[in-house]
């Protein structure tokens, strides 16, 4: 550490402050902790006494001993109920109830002169006890015990033995001191209280709580004594006399003082070490700022210094962050603009290429029929081969129909690309639609000696939700394409399958030459043909599959084309409609 450095200054200031705080904590503990503990304990006991007096007044006399015992165990107190003359009411808070020979026997545990080992450990509901004692009532239900045991010993002469199962009990719990010894001291505390009762008489009659200190002369233990009336009027209805030990807090404070004496050197060492670590941590922003500046110099904006303090370090960090964000944003904008420019150039080149291909395709598709029409028309005009006039006119009409079909397909495709087509979906029978379209190709099938095989997984008709006119156009184009490329004397398979997620899949497969892999991705493009020679004998305008693609996309269909072992298979999906056919 430098002599005038920030780290050394932070180290000294931090060490002094922590040691000062530690000294103040020790001083406050020695001066105020015992007082705070006493005040807190008495306030809690006062609240519980108020609740106890309300419950005691509403509790039947048979249950008052239970309430008293529970209060003493829960609050770590010795408690007595006094009458109007400040004489102790004979309520024994501790008892055990046994079920023996069909009746319940209450064993009263005496509070005076009873040692803790007099009561066996581990007593709980359902335990078996053997008690030797003397019955105190005519019905033999209340017993003064002499021996309480869980194992049988010899019965003394003059005593009665009772054996039974514990059904209920309230026993003294271990508290700050021996509870039975502390309970035995309450008579001495009451006698000392009687000597001072006159000065507190008026307060008690007004329902106020009276507090006094009392000390056990034999052990020297200090107790806090709290007395309050059980009744709210001045006539009185008895008093609650509560005594609780204050010795534990005194012992705890003494132990804490000794503990701090031994702990102080360790704390000082830890303070020095932690202060040194803290001072180095605080100086880390300089290192972070230096590293950040180096990254900015290399145009690396991936990391930014996270310094949120309001000093010069924080201000410099925020300035560097702002600079980094501005530079990064500018570079990203430049990169994005460059990428967009490249995409625009590529799109322009592609559009130009498509335009050239479209013009070439249209020119090619129109040039040949126009040349044929012109040649036959000139022949008719010159009167050449007049016997073939009807044949020439038929060829002229055929070529005119071909050009008209091309123009109509172009108009149809332009509507799809302009999204001017709106579907009119309804429930239709897919099997009926395919069969209807297949029947229209009977002449082409006979000319190539082809057969149709329609295979459905079920006998009944399969219904889908689709536009019937557009789907007829799709099936017509796909079947026409399959017939055009099928080898002679083969079978064209049409398979309709119901999928598990509510879709119908239609597969149209022919037997013929497969499509090259590089052509599969472009098969749906307009004017794209697998035959590079553009043999007109195969027919078609080159727009059918492009129209099929647009119609299936409007139906949100999943469509594809794959090569199979026999040839090529086209497939598409439609949503199933389980309702009945409307038309």
The description of the largest β-sheet is: 5 strands, mixed, barrel
The Rg value, from CA coordinates, equals 53 Å
Q: State the low-pLDDT regions, or none.
A: 532-537
Gross geometry: elongated
Task: Give the tally of structural domains.
Answer: 3
Structural class of the helix and strand makeup? alpha+beta
| Mean pLDDT rating | 79
Strand order of the largest sheet: 2-3-5-4-6
> What share of residues is helical?
40-55%
The arrangement of helices and strands along the chain is HHEEEEEEHHHEEEHHHEHHEEHEEHHEE
| Number of helical regions | 13
The total count of strands amounts to: 16
* Residues in β-strands, percent: 15-25%
The N- and C-terminal alpha carbons lie at a distance of: 94 Å
SSE order and pairing:
Elements lengths: L5 H53 L2 H15 L2 E5 L12 E6 L2 E6 L19 E8 L6 E8 L10 E11 L8 H6 L1 H9 L2 H9 L4 E6 L6 E8 L9 E7 L1 H51 L14 H70 L7 H29 L8 E4 H10 L2 H7 L2 E6 L6 E4 L1 H18 L5 E8 L4 E9 L5 H4 L23 H11 L4 E5 L3 E9 L8
Parallel strand pairs: 3-5, 11-13
Antiparallel strand pairs: 1-9, 2-3, 2-6, 4-5, 4-6, 7-8, 8-9, 10-12, 13-14, 14-16, 15-16
Helix pairs in contact: 1-2, 1-6, 6-7, 7-8, 8-13, 9-11, 11-13
Enzyme class: transferase
Pfam family, one: HisKA
EC number: 2.7.13.3
């Amino acid at each position: 550490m430098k002599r005038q450095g920030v780290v050394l200054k932070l180290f000294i200031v931090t060490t002094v402050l922590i040691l000062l705080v530690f000294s103040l904590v020790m001083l406050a503990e020695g001066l105020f902790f015992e007082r705070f503990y006493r005040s807190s304990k008495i306030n809690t006991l006062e609240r519980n006494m108020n609740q106890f007096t309300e419950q005691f007044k509403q509790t039947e006399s048979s249950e008052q001993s239970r309430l008293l015992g529970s209060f003493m165990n829960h609050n770590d107190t010795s408690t007595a109920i006094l009458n109007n003359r400040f004489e102790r009411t004979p309520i024994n808070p501790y008892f055990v109830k046994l079920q023996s020979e069909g009746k319940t026997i209450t064993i009263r545990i005496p509070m005076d002169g009873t040692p803790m080992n007099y009561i066996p450990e581990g007593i709980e509901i359902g335990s078996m006890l053997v008690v030797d004692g003397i019955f105190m009532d005519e019905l033999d239900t209340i017993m003064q015990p002499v021996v309480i045991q869980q194992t049988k010993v010899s019965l003394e002469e003059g005593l009665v033995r009772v054996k039974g199962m514990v059904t209920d009990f309230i026993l003294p719990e271990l508290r700050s001191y021996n509870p039975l010894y502390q309970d035995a001291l309450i008579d001495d505390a009451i006698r000392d209280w009687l000597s001072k009762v006159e000065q507190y008489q008026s307060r008690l009659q007004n329902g106020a709580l009276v507090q006094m200190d009392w000390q056990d002369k034999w052990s020297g233990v200090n107790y806090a004594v709290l007395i309050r009336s059980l009744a709210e009027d001045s006539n009185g209805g008895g008093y609650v006399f509560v005594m609780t030990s204050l010795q534990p807090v005194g012992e705890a404070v003494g132990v804490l003082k000794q503990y701090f004496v031994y702990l102080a050197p360790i704390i000082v060492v830890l303070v020095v070490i932690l202060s040194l670590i803290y001072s180095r941590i605080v100086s880390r922003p300089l290192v972070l700022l230096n590293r950040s500046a180096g990254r900015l110099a290399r145009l690396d904006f991936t990391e930014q210094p996270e310094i949120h303090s309001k000093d010069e370090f924080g201000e410099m960090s925020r300035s560097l962050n702002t600079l980094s964000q501005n530079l990064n944003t500018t570079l990203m904008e430049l990169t994005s603009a460059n990428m967009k420019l490249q995409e625009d150039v590529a799109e322009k080149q592609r559009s130009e290429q498509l335009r050239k291909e479209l013009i070439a395709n249209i020119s090619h598709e129109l040039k040949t029929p126009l040349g044929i029409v012109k040649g036959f028309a000139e022949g008719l005009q010159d009167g050449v081969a007049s016997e073939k006039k009807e044949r020439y006119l038929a060829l002229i009409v055929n070529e005119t129909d071909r050009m008209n079909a091309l123009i109509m397909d172009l108009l149809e495709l332009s509507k799809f690309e302009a999204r001017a087509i709106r579907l009119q979906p309804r429930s239709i029978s897919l099997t009926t639609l395919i069969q209807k379209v297949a029947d229209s190709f009977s002449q082409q099938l006979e000319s190539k000696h082809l057969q149709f095989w329609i295979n459905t997984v079920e006998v009944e008709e399969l219904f889908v939700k689709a536009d019937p006119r557009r789907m007829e156009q799709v099936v017509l184009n796909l079947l026409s394409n399959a017939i055009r490329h099928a080898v002679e004397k083969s079978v064209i398979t049409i398979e309709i399958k119901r999928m598990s997620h509510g879709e119908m899949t239609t597969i149209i497969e022919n037997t013929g030459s497969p499509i090259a892999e590089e052509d599969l991705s472009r098969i749906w493009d307009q004017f794209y043909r697998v035959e590079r020679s553009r043999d007109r004998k195969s027919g078609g305008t080159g727009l059918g599959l492009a129209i099929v693609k647009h119609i299936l996309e409007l139906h949100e269909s999943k469509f594809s084309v794959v090569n199979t072992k026999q040839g090529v298979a086209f497939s598409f999906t439609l949503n199933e409609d389980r309702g009945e056919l409307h038309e």
